Prior knowledge:
The mean pLDDT is about 95. The protein has 10 helices and no strands. Helices cover about 70% and strands about 0% of the residues. The chain has a single domain (about 5-200), classed as Alpha Horseshoe (Serine Threonine Protein Phosphatase 5, Tetratricopeptide repeat), CATH 1.25.40. The structure holds adenosine-5'-diphosphate and magnesium ion (MG). Magnesium ion (MG) binds near residues 28, 33, 35 and 166.
Amino acid sequence: MGPNTLKSVIEAVSDAVIAHTDELTGLDQKIGDGDHGFNMKRGFEAVLADLPAITDLAVGPALKKAGMTLVMKVGGASGPLYGTLFMALGDALPEDPQRGDYVAAFAAAIDAVKARGKAEAGQKTMLDVLIPVHQVLADGAKGAAVREAASAAAQATIPMQATRGRASFLGERSIGHMDPGARSSEIIITTVLNVLEAEQ
Ligand code: ADP
Ligand code: MG
């Protein structure tokens, strides 16, 4: 990924997250405290403000820097978790990464999120999108197939009962609503794929 593509990806992801502020807030109002949209908006606005410094770097260090910005600027549980995801992704990438390197780094980043949040698959969190999407990528899926997997995985959080994060306080009442962090992960993944496809 060249510097222009990196800039396009980070810009598009930030814009997409910010554009979905109200939707993410609405989801978090149902099973949380209603701040997920605002938390993510604040974090990605800070990433956009830092864009020149971030895109001056190679892809690994750039993602690490973006992750550090998210940790510092995003409140709630999602800030440290998304921050950890991007920092670990950046840390795990070699210089001039190829497709397989991205997939391997994504696995390392998911492990870091699991460790940070003491969470696993099936607990109605962002991991319930990240893990299945990594799986289809590792199986060789591309473009539309990956987007469909992300969307299906976010939908699949609706019938789950939350056993991690704020939504777990609701017990069975968390059933029947999409997890806000699963939806924000879907938005981020879909946007990355859209940009990479458009740039090819
Ligand atoms: P908070 O829950 O502190 O208000 P946010 O509303 O910004 O923070 O983010 C909530 C989202 O964070 C949830 O929808 C879920 O996807 C994710 N989340 C919460 N706790 C965990 C955890 N331990 N591991 C992974 N993801 C988590
Ligand atoms: Mg919240």
